[in-house]
Amino acid sequence: MPNKLTYTKKSGLLENARQVPSPNFDERPNESDISLIIIHNISLPPGQFGEAWIDKLFTNQLPKDTHPFFAEIHTLRVSSHLLIRRDGEVVQYVPFHKRAWHAGISQFQGREVCNDFSIGIELEGTDKQAFTDIQYRQLEATIKQLQQHYPRLKKGNITGHQHIAPNRKTDPGEFFDWQRLSVALDQDLPANASDASDASDAKK
Predict the structure, then answer these.
(1) Which of 51, 72, 122, 124 is catalytic?
(2) How many CA atoms lie less than 13 Å away from 113 in the CB half-sphere?
(3) Residues 145/61, Cβ–Cβ less than 8 Å
(4) Pairing with 91, which of 22, 56, 99, 111 sits 20 to 30 Å away (CA)?
(5) For the chain, which residues make up each domain, given as ranges?
(6) pTM of the predicted protein model
(7) Element of type H or E holding 128
(8) What proportion of the chain, given as a percentage, has pLDDT over 90?
(9) Average pLDDT over residues 9-32
(10) Considering only CA atoms, which of 53, 112, 103 is closest in space to residue 78?
């Protein structure tokens, strides 16, 4: 079991996470507006686990000639706040109070540009494969830490990339166990990403 993760709000970092600083971030419009967690999955090359290529992608060092897929994506300038690997290792690329570039064109309950107010967490995996027990445990522990420190990150404001960008993205995919996360956090997940007024009307 990896060491317990403790969040230091002043630095925006998780203690005991492996720190791999990414240059792909900027300032949030409003640091006090952190109010959403977005869960993604990633594997590089697709379907392969345990190598250092995700670190390379998020630090703009992915070699284009190493794999055919890398030639397509090596110029991307993207990042996430965290990666949780298959073995439970947690890697942090961007401090939480900074804006990571993970969501792209997106919308959550009528608000666009989700990068402005969200935290992005990547799970090493694919849309078509179950995630590991230790990944869920690390994810649950991390979310609990974040909700203690960000008052607007209220219960239930957790969703997937596929929900905030449904025409572009499919992750974390059908094998992500939202029911398990809901029970562990005592929250109804994933959050409804449609316009808040639309969601309210739908319940009438």
Answers:
(1) 122
(2) 6
(3) no
(4) 111
(5) 6-202
(6) 0.93
(7) none
(8) 88
(9) 94
(10) 103
